[in-house]
Batch of 2 targets.
Target 1
Amino acid sequence: MSAARGRPLPVPEGGFRRIAVLRLSSLGDVVLTLPTVVALRAAFPAAEIAYWVKEEYADLVREHPAVTRARVLEKDARRLEDLVSMSAELEDHDLVLDLHGSARTRLLTFRQKAIVLRVPSTRLQRERWVRARWSLPAPLPPVWQQSAPLLARLGLSLAGPPRLHPSAAASAWAAQEWAAMQLPARTIALAPGAAWATKRWPEAHWCALEAALAERGLGRLVLTTVAERRALPGLAAQLASRPGGAWATESLARGMALMARAAAAVTHDSGLMHVAAASGLPVVALFGGTHPALGFAPAGSGHAVLCREEPCQPCALHGREACPLGHHRCMTALAPVEVVAALERVLAEVVP
Ligand code: SF4
């Protein structure tokens, strides 16, 4: 039963019993739904809350105290017929929150008897930022707050930005690994990867940043996938040439646990930006072909968002394979010295 828009909804006496939250992907988007799950848990402490998510992101929610269980969609079970048969699992739920609004989640929730609340799409507002900036679009609300109108219909509200909970096993592993890497007491997590080329800062700038941090006695922990590491040979060679630096290409669970031990992070507009902020780190976030006004700035306070406000920025909702103007000025003109200064500012604000 898809609930009519806007009207307050009756909450059953004793609260909802079985709740499903659907957000199948991606890394940052799943992180940004966590405050919604926390609000549901606070209101319905006895409910079973199942979080439906693709297996590559399941570590984000598996150990979260507000989630009863992760309903994992394996890579080989996402065809149309798989989804139709999985939708039967939702039949004995009394509340379904579709925080994805994709074709897959619409199929999963089609003709369910439960109350189905779906987060409204902001695609048109975001498209306006890319294609019609002359119409002076307003900044979008932070994505982690976009479920607020849905929760209001249940008489609930969001309490604060997302927080991640690495598993005890991953945290224990990270403690040992951290000691073995012999990183300085104050180490900065660097995340030079991003799915789209226009979101990436040039490798030479990352090298300059790494050198500046080493000069200041700060540790450097680079976190990427294996493929991203292969694409940054100069940074890998430079990091290996002096003490106080390490490179990790670990699973999401371990990467999260390592990230949580850093003093701050420097990232692109990427999934790891949201992981870092939700791990309690102050983040220096570098925005290239996108823009923080689209709602994806790091959640919470104490961060620094660096965006040059080029006239062409943003040139895409998510990013592009190459700069359509050829110069990629949004990133090449963002100088390492500005990033170092922003990092010093956010570190100065952290209570020692
Ligand atoms: S310089 Fe402009 S057009 Fe090129 S990637 Fe950056 S925002 Fe897009």
Note: The chain has two domains: 18-152, 168-349.
Target 2
Amino acid sequence: MKTCPRCNESSDDQFDSCWKCSGPLPAGNGLPAPSHSASPVRPRKRAAFKIFRGVFITWEGLCSEAAEFASTVGPQNLITISHSEDQGDGVITVWFWTDAV
Ligand SMILES: [Zn+2]
């Protein structure tokens, strides 16, 4: 049995709302939860990255490309920006959070 928090009337566990005042009843009572509440829908984030390579571009151009992209990602989703250089070949990696599919 569930007890209505609003009017203290008792309802069977199968009901989601009070038969008397139609107020919402608390979910579960130490009993197995009904199947419809088993999987809460929650937006999840996953890490992703975008690589900018500078074979035909200067560091300046490469950085502004990465900066442009980082701006579209937004500060709340930006993890970090790393860069390295290998024999004049510049690489900038922008790490960011994206919505999981
Ligand atoms: Zn009630």
Note: The mean pLDDT is 83.
